# Entry
Amino acid sequence: MDSLKITGGHKLNGTIPISGAKNSALKLMAACLLTREPLTLTNMPNLADTRFLSQLLASLGVEVYWPKGDSECRLNAAELTSTIAPYDQVRKMRASFNVLGPMLAREGHATVSLPGGCAIGARPVDLHLQALEAMGADLKVEAGYVKAAAIHGLKGAKIVFPFVSVGATEHAMLAATLAHGTTILENAAREPEIADLADCLNKMGANIGGAGTATVKIEGVEALSGATHAVMADRIEAGTYAMAAAAAGGDVTLEGAPVAALGAMIDAMQRSGVDVEADEAAATIRVQRNGSALKAVDVNTQPHPGFPTDLQAQFMALMSIADGTSVIRENIFENRFMHAPELSRLGADIQVRGKEAIVKGVEQLRGAPVMATDLRASVSLVIAALAAEGETQVNRIYHLDRGFERLEEKLTGCGADIQRVEGE
Ligand code: EPZ
# Structure
């Protein structure tokens, strides 16, 4: 297995282009199943996860044209040859589960494996299933598979989510585009990726209003057409590099950054004493820290527009070298502190108590071998390693390849010392 060898202590200076958002791209790709015409997605991130979903779509009969390294992907689901997504494919990437609703809405039936838990928690899909049932789907769970049928098509429904779920909101929205009548989603997630998905679906002829607010209204239409859509910029990638620059010190400008989507992150960084200049019109965020100390700041992860859970690990790495003690509370996932013991191997002082991590800032982190456990945990170790004295080996970096496009290239371009070591 490949690892990264990082020699810390180099300031980061330069510019970093932000790629298309993984978590938007995955749902936009699933939207191709709703139409017989081609869907062209531009600004596509070349990642293990997006490539993986393109293979799953191909196995369902979608013609995929996406040359290696290209940022434009053409998906043509003129004919589906299968409506079954097997365990092996859904287990490897949970977002594959999102093919269920679109196939059901279009074909009237679909069989998709349940995703199972993952490193950050149990992550059930009950809200997804309740939403599809409310739209009239007949669901049977057998041998780890959801067998769904809606012979006469899905019908509009009022769905009140008991708590906010990004995936369930997106899944219900995808399925409702082709339902008979109106669907109202209450207590919908407000993540920017939801508005991006609605924009794309509306270009395809859907009739969705309110995406990005807590109430989304979808008027079902007879059929959707093809469209071309640019994937929104990745707010989590942008936030990650902002924190890397703050931790290592230096002067980095993020280009093509989704500034409006990053309010809570920018606020937390500014409160910790980092100089952050965000320019929404220019889509740039300049992050500077030259010698000044970091102040400890508490954060609480929340659904958007709160502080994102997907930046919690990275912020913990930053707080591990701040002056004072910060309390980081994880409210979205029950098991998302696996990076804490690994950060401690680099000298961080972190105590985890239930939903809270108490981080006492230390003067200096020191390099050590560490192990990545999930995507965002992995990159928090990279951030800590950039700020640490000496050499860190980050093992199991296949997690990073799932969600960060050209990570080494982007960071070495700003002066970081990072090498990929190929494993046996
Ligand atoms: C999306 O996951 C993202 N994944 C996650 O990013 C992100 O952390 C999360 O939203 C929150 O922002 C993708 O977009 C592919 P949820 P999702 O449904 O949709 C519980 C990353 O690192 N829940 O909002 O799965 C669930 O267990 C990943 O890029 C139910 O109980 O998140 C969690 O505790 C990790 N039943 C909470 O709700 C359900 O049916 C929020 O999950 C659905 C969710």
Q: What stands out?
A: The first strand starts at residue 3 and ends at 7. The mean pLDDT is 96. The chain has two domains: 3-19+233-421, 22-230. The pocket of EPZ is lined by residues 23, 26, 95, 121, 123-128, 165-168, 189, 309-310, 332-333, 375-376, 403 (CB under 6 Å).
